[in-house]
Each structure stands twice: as structure tokens, then as C-alpha cells.
Design brief:
Elements: E1 8-15, H1 22-35, E2 39-46, H2 53-60, E3 66-70, H3 77-85, E4 92-95, H4 106-113, E5 119-127, H5 131-149, E6 160-163, H6 164-170, H7 181-190, E7 195-202, H8 214-230, E8 236-238, E9 250-253, E10 256-259, H9 276-295, H10 297-327
Parallel strand pairs: 1-2, 1-4, 2-3, 5-7
Antiparallel strand pairs: 4-6, 5-6, 8-9, 9-10
Helix pairs in contact: 5-8, 9-10
């Protein structure tokens, strides 16, 4: 698998009052990606900042490949990411917070790993932030990520790299401001995509003020996690890897990808083996058989044997009919001995 053949990436950066960090972030991204000869675009989604954030971004756009998106939808980071992805033009997509707690130099290594995986998640292995936040993050990750969803990843990491195909497959509208990451990882895993973690150092914020209210955020994410856990995830349609053909198209379901090279609706495939009415009929028949075996075992067995014998006999007659019909027809497809 090679998800990153052309070395190009669209990076989504949600921002709110980050005027002191924007310039440093852009310069570091440019320095690291240019050195690695990676083409990039930065998509800043401004969530109605009240400082000079928009002006700083607009000035930097003169010198760097930057797109400034002024938020139209709901307030909050999750909705900013949702809006920003629409503007991405490259097959590799990244996302990063603007507060410089995640080193943007990690994009190079994460993009290299994208050649063998579908989604790369930053793993905050080394914490240089407060001890309280470290304990909070580790506890949340275990309680909701590993225990509730079986995800061995940093479920709230603000640094990720993934293929456009992943997003087009699992695309969803976030439920609230901080509920993008967990549901995104859960849906991607259920669709059968390969997820890899990338160890990083998580730094302490140097400039500006954090917009995170940990108590409110924890409650919001926790409630949403329970909602997502009980929500039924339907089979996801995987789009073709080539827009000019059906190659690579298929369905993702129950942590597996079924590449069928077609986009036919999943309810017409073998993923759905029986309808609700068929299941009810089968259950009713099984119930009748169990009751019959309890009330009159001998008669019930005689009826079962009779029904099965009739089915086999009808099958024999059908096969005999097909053979006689085929003997009276000429071959529709022929091939020479050489072929």
C-alpha cells in the first residue's frame, strides 16, 4: 500500500485567538516540509477570533501557501475541522492545533508512515505540560479509548495525518465542539482502516491562553463517547482509489475492508444476509420445531425428514431439467485448444 506517492499534504489548522503562535507555526511547518521536499497547503479555519489572528494569517498568505477560511458553521474545534477538510486539495490530509504544543516537524515522519497505514495518530508519550493534564489525559485515554472502544491510541491528540479516502469513507457531522477525534478514530477502525500511532513530545503552551475548560470538555467528550458507543455504525462505502475507475472501491464493516471494486449499495450485497422479516420467519420456524420436539418428538422428526426429502427431490428434478435443456443448446462461449 502506498498512500503518499506524490509527497503533497493539506494541513487543517483550527484557530481561535492564536495571534502570538501563528507566525512561528507557519515558519516551522515550512522549514521542515520544504527540507523534505514536501508540497503543502495550510488551511486555517478561524473560529471568530477577537484578536489579530485573521490579520496575521492574511499577511502570511502573501508568502506561504495559505487558505484562510472564516467559520460559517457552529462554534468549536470539531466543526472547524469539518469545514476545513472541504478545502483540502491533496490526497494526504493533516490536522494540528495552533498552540505549538505539538511539534509540526512531526509531519515528515508521520507522512512516511502513511505509506503503510491509512491514519497516523500522534501519541503524547513524553509530556512536558502540567502533571495534572498528563494524569487527566492518561485516565481519559484508558477509560474511554481502550476500555470503551478498544482503541490503543491517543484519542484526543490534536495532531493526525490521514488519507482523503479515510475521511470520504467515514465522513460525519460532529455532535459538539470537542467530539471529532474519538468518533473519527472509531469510525475509521470499524471501516477496516489501518491506524498507527506516532510517538511525540507534548510541549507546554508558551504563548497565549488555552481555550480549553477541562471540566466542561471532559463531561462533553464523556457523554458523547457513550452516545457513540451505543450508536449503530452502518457499513461504510469506500470510494475508489482512482477517480477514473472503480478500482479500490468497496465496503468497510466490523473492522474489515471488503474491496469489491464496485459502489453498489451494501444492503444488496452479502454483508446483509437476511432481512428483518426473514429473521422473524426463521425464528418462528425454529420455535415451532422446538415446541414440536417437546410435545411430539416422533411426529416432528417424521415431518422434518419428509420436508427435507421433498426439498432434495425437487433439487434433483431441477438439476435434471437444467441438464436436458443444456444438451439441446449450442455453446454460447467457445474457445480453441490453443486458447
Amino acid at each position: 500500500m502506498n498512500n503518499f506517492p506524490d509527497k503533497k499534504i493539506s494541513i487543517i489548522i483550527p484557530v481561535f485567538n492564536e495571534e502570538q503562535n501563528i507566525k512561528h507555526l507557519v515558519e516551522r511547518i515550512h522549514a521542515s516540509l520544504s527540507k523534505a521536499e514536501i508540497t503543502y497547503e495550510l488551511i486555517f479555519v478561524d473560529d471568530h477570533s477577537t484578536d489579530q489572528t485573521r490579520n496575521v494569517i492574511s499577511n502570511l498568505a502573501i508568502f506561504y501557501p495559505i487558505i484562510l477560511v472564516e467559520k460559517k458553521g457552529k462554534r468549536g474545534k470539531a466543526f472547524s475541522i469539518y469545514e476545513g477538510i472541504k478545502y483540502a486539495q491533496y490526497d494526504a490530509v493533516g490536522m494540528i492545533d495552533a498552540d505549538l504544543q505539538y511539534g509540526p516537524e512531526n509531519f515528515v515522519g508521520m507522512l512516511e508512515e502513511l505509506e503503510n497505514f491509512d491514519l497516523i495518530v500522534a501519541n503524547r508519550k513524553h509530556y512536558r505540560d502540567s502533571l495534572l493534564r498528563k494524569i487527566f489525559s492518561k485516565t481519559f485515554r484508558f477509560a474511554f479509548g481502550r476500555f470503551l472502544f478498544g482503541l490503543d491510541h491517543d484519542i484526543q491528540a490534536g495532531l493526525k495525518v490521514f488519507t482523503r479516502r479515510v475521511w470520504e469513507t467515514v465522513k460525519f457531522m460532529p455532535h459538539s465542539a470537542w467530539t471529532f477525534d474519538l468518533e473519527f478514530l472509531h469510525r475509521a477502525k470499524q471501516a477496516g482502516f489501518k491506524i498507527q500511532k506516532h510517538n511525540i513530545i507534548f510541549y507546554k503552551r508558551k504563548n497565549g491562553k488555552s481555550n480549553v475548560n477541562f471540566v466542561k470538555q471532559t463531561a462533553e467528550i464523556g457523554i458523547n463517547a457513550l452516545r457513540v458507543r451505543v450508536k449503530r455504525i452502518h457499513p461504510a462505502h469506500i470510494p475508489p482509489s482512482d477517480k477514473y475507475s472503480m478500482l479500490g472501491a468497496g465496503v468497510g464493516h466490523r473492522k474489515r475492508k471488503y474491496i469489491t471494486h464496485t459502489t453498489i449499495p451494501h444492503h444488496t450485497t452479502a454483508l446483509k444476509t437476511a432481512t428483518l422479516s426473514q429473521k422473524l420467519i426463521i425464528l418462528l420456524l425454529l420455535t415451532d420445531i422446538v415446541l414440536g420436539l417437546y410435545i411430539n418428538p416422533l411426529l416432528t422428526l417424521q415431518i422434518l425428514v419428509g420436508v427435507l426429502s421433498a426439498i432434495y427431490f425437487i433439487d434433483v428434478l431441477f438439476n435434471f431439467y437444467m441438464i436436458t435443456k443444456s444438451l439441446g443448446k449450442t455453446n454460447e462461449i467457445t474457445s480453441s485448444d490453443e486458447e
